[in-house]
Write a structure and sequence with these properties.
Layout (H helix, E strand, L loop, with lengths): L1 E5 L3 H13 L3 E5 L10 H4 L9 E4 L5 E4 L1 H12 L7 H31 L5 H21 L12 H10 L13 H11 L2 H6 L9
Parallel strand pairs: 1-2
Antiparallel strand pairs: 1-3, 3-4
Helix pairs in contact: 1-3, 1-6, 4-5, 4-6, 5-7
Length: 206
């Protein structure tokens, strides 16, 4: 059994969607980020960085895993699904997983923060993050021009990027200019595991 500690954010959904796609049983622990649950001593024992998501594998001597990408790799390796075992296939999936973690997530996240949460409106800063997010969407769109998924079969790389791209409307970016990305976005949205995973928990923080 997996204990999932999360909140309704794109990074949180990466863990819940992966669990749903793999059909793994888990216990949901919803953290109220606005109330600082993620900084409480009990949770810091699970993730010393005080961020969601995190998991505890009760069937593996209460092994704790933090960082969304690390959680996805752990679950995929545990089940032998969503991550190839051959060196080339595994590398491709991890490259596109890290593309999200190093690019799409940070850029889109900052675009949202400076557009909606920052006390001052800084147009140049907002434009910088929106422009970079759109550039990264363009990279994804080009990648998907001649393939159904980002790296061979459906994988954790698709889940990671989709959990962020699906929130494009929150920063007023349309997918009209990215037809391949839009097709892929809709394809994943139709998967039962993806559709259910982004409703866990059901109160978005993004």
């Amino acid at each position: 059994m997996i204990d999932l500690y999360t909140a309704a954010t794109p990074n949180g959904w990466k863990a819940s969607v992966t669990l749903e796609e793999l059909g793994l049983p888990y216990t949901l622990n919803t953290l109220e980020l606005g109330q600082g649950d993620q900084k409480q001593p009990a949770f810091l024992q699970v993730n010393p960085n005080g961020r969601i998501p995190a998991i505890v594998d009760r069937d593996n001597d209460d092994f704790a895993v933090f960082e969304s990408g690390a959680i996805m790799i752990y679950l995929a390796e545990m089940t032998g699904r969503l991550l190839p075992t051959d060196a080339r296939g595994r590398s491709e999936v991890i490259q596109w997983l890290l593309f999200q973690m190093a690019g799409v997530g940070p850029m889109q996240g900052q675009a949202y923060v400076f557009s909606h949460s920052f006390p001052e409106k800084l147009p140049a800063v907002i434009e910088r993050y929106l422009t970079e997010t759109q550039r990264l969407y363009g990279v994804l769109d080009t990648r998907l021009a001649d393939r159904e998924y980002l790296a061979g079969d459906f994988s954790i790389a698709d889940i990671a990027n989709w959990c962020w791209v699906r929130m494009h409307g929150a920063i007023d970016i349309s997918l009209d200019a990215f037809p391949n990305l839009a097709r892929w976005h809709d394809l994943l949205a139709e998967r039962p595991g993806c559709a259910k995973g982004v409703l866990i928990p059901d109160q978005p923080h993004f």
